[in-house]
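Project channel, design review

CF: Before we commit to the Maribacter aurantiacus constructs, I'd like one complete example in the thread so the newer folks can see what an input/output pair looks like. Taking BLUF domain-containing protein.
RD: sounds good, go ahead.
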Amino acid sequence: MHELTYTSQAKKNVSLKDLNDILKTANEFNKTHSITGCLVYHNGLFVQTLHGAKKGIFDLLKKIQGDERHTNVNLVWEGPAEKEVFKGWHMAFFSPKTSGKTSESLIDFERNLITLSTFYKADSASVRIFWSIVKDLCLNEAQTH
Ligand SMILES: Cc1cc2nc3c(=O)[nH]c(=O)nc-3n(C[C@H](O)[C@H](O)[C@H](O)COP(=O)(O)O)c2cc1C
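CF: and here is what came back for BLUF domain-containing protein:
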């Protein structure tokens, strides 16, 4: 098994419908291809980690790289992985847009992610990097409130 983590920049016009479409496609495709992972969308940026057979996740990354809904896809980690860290999550998804847009819910969203990132004791380098990027995203945003 193998895993990878990348970051990318959402196009300015990305809508809630786009996010729901991505999630729906990801859940269906990843489930049938035994790929698990997690996707966070925050402040115009995506961070995603994918876990599965090496060819499977790199073929998927190629498709994702060609997706018009984002740009600047930057692979920050790839390597072999033993454990399935996001077991059962074909594509777990976190976005403040799914929980309303009031500043209070945004702060809750960030707080929850920061807490998760702090307590997440992952053996996997890819997932540790994933959570550290998520934490940075949240802290950078928090400073601008
Ligand atoms: C940030 C982001 C993450 C995505 N993650 C996945 C994913 O995990 N699985 C998936 O099948 N598609 C994902 N997609 C959608 C793919 O880019 C693509 O639209 C999908 O694979 C369908 O491609 P096709 O129409 O060429 O088959 C993602 C798109 C974006 C923008």
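RD: helpful, thanks. The chain has a mean pLDDT of 80.
CF: The pocket of flavin mononucleotide is lined by residues 8, 22, 25-26, 29-30, 39, 46, 48, 60, 63-64, 67, 69-70, 91 (CB under 6 Å).
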